[in-house]
Amino acid sequence: MVQEKTGPSPTLAPGPVAAEPRRRTPAPESKWVLSGRVAAAVAGGVLLFLSFPPLDWWLCAPLGLGLVVASLYGARPRRAAWVAFLGAVVFLLPALVWVRTIGDDVWLMLVGVESLFYAAMAVPVSLVFRLRLWPLYFAALWVAMEWLRGLVPIGGFPWARVAFSQGESVFTPYAALGGAPLVSFAVALCGALLAYALLRPAAGVRQAIPLALALLVPLLGLAVPRPADEGRTVNVGIVQGNVPGRGMDFLGDEPAVVLKNHAEETKRLARAVRAGELPKPDLVVLPENSTDIDPYRDAFAHRTIDEAVKDVGVPTLVGAVVAIGEEHRATRSLSWDPVTGPGAYYDKQRLVPFGEYTPFKDLVMALYDRASLVGRQSVPGEKPGDLKLGPVTIGAVNCYEVAYDDTVRETVRTGATPIVVQTNNASYALSNLPAQQLAMSKLRAVEHNRAVVTAATTGISAFVTPDGKVSWQTRELVADMTVVKVPVQTETTVATKVGAVPEWALIVLGAAAVLAAVWRRRRHDRMGNE
């Protein structure tokens, strides 16, 4: 019999290896895997851009997100972050190209800052891929990322959310249940399920299940109930006066040109009504900045507007920039009566940074000459835009605000109907901005069961029915006007009632998944060390 040695076991001997077990380092990825990630991220970014207006190839959104998932799947957090950043840059550079009007440096800076949000999202996403239901968690984290983008910095920038590529698609009905966040979630979930089927190939039923679920997500949207037509309508006149200039010099050299153009187009509408060419309106809507002179302080501006409103003979919503004290201003939606003149008003709450006010004013003004173009600093309003105008109480929303869920929702919750969006896109004419903004109006119509009337200085002015269909719209850079019969819907949707609850539920779901993934990873590491 061979006698065993009784000396100490080597595994129990003191030493750095036994005291501090090293974590196993994953093998580096091959150049082919890395090249595949880069290609998938770039292709995903391109497809996301193609899904947005003016192309409106909405089906590209879930396909693009599927490729984004493929680019991140299995990557370590640091690599996932820069791959996601690359895909976001490819997407946002063309999607936000309209910002070039202000300057290429501003455009590139904005794209760079916004792309950081996608990079930050990729880190927790790389962790939740270890969980069984990761397509669900990926979609929830995508919603969380879009929420954060709309919040910070300096008031957020919610442009180019995936939901805004779905102004008229099979995913749009989800807006009536949970607003824009639920639409983004549905598109992201569909894309993630498609990726799941391709990245985790299996035979027979196991592969068919994620593909079937990916198809089921948009089909379930078609089952969302729509409120019935209530049979009440109002005739709304829409005026687009046009401007002579382009870009940052859209006002041209002629004084009061915007005011004169819109007053003349309002009078042309009045003549068409008297001639029987158009039905008589119950109210008329002019765009944001339809007067470039303060009608409270300038007698000429007051008289010009008053004459035009008296000619058309009905209450008119005027877009005015008005002085507040000696140093500030407000972007105002002003109700103007043909008998009593200016009355109730709504002041824009969501202001455009560096366009209507200058954040960190002293520093920015010292560094950039263009910051002086802002002029007087705007101050935000504090109340929703419910304004009595003729036979209805409209919900006034001003330009940039249509991208913000809470601003539109709080206005609709007052009972206002229809929604009226006054906008001035003159600096961005013939870019992709006007079409992107119209897509937001289409989504808001479905989200709140409200018709949306948009009046723009240079286009696109439009009338969107409560089911999100564009019934009438103008071309850009032309003077135009019409009278449309607008349904007056008062029934609210689930999305209007529950507000941000679905969004917060998805954010909590995503956060819980990340915590679960971190706990699981630490537990696995601890067991491996033991």
From TrEMBL:
GO terms classed as biological process: lipoprotein biosynthetic process
E.C. numbers: 2.3.1.269
TM ranges: 32-50, 56-73, 80-100, 106-129, 136-154, 174-196, 208-225, 501-519
A single Gene Ontology CC term: plasma membrane
InterPro entries the record matches: Apolipo_AcylTrfase (IPR004563), C-N_Hydrolase (IPR003010), C-N_Hydrolase_sf (IPR036526), IPTL_CTERM (IPR026442), LNT_N (IPR045378)
Alphabetical list of PROSITE patterns matching this protein: CN_HYDROLASE
UniProt pathway annotation: Protein modification; lipoprotein biosynthesis (N-acyl transfer)
Membrane topology annotation: Multi-pass membrane protein
Subcellular location(s) of the protein: Cell membrane
GO molecular function terms noted in the UniProt entry: N-acyltransferase activity
Region feature (Disordered): 1-24
Top-level EC class as recorded in UniProt: transferase
Keywords attached to this entry: Acyltransferase, Cell membrane, Membrane, Transferase, Transmembrane, Transmembrane helix
Coiled coil: none
Role description: Catalyzes the phospholipid dependent N-acylation of the N-terminal cysteine of apolipoprotein, the last step in lipoprotein maturation.
PANTHER family: APOLIPOPROTEIN N-ACYLTRANSFERASE
Protein name: Apolipoprotein N-acyltransferase
Taxonomic lineage from the root: Bacteria, Bacillati, Actinomycetota, Actinomycetes, Streptosporangiales
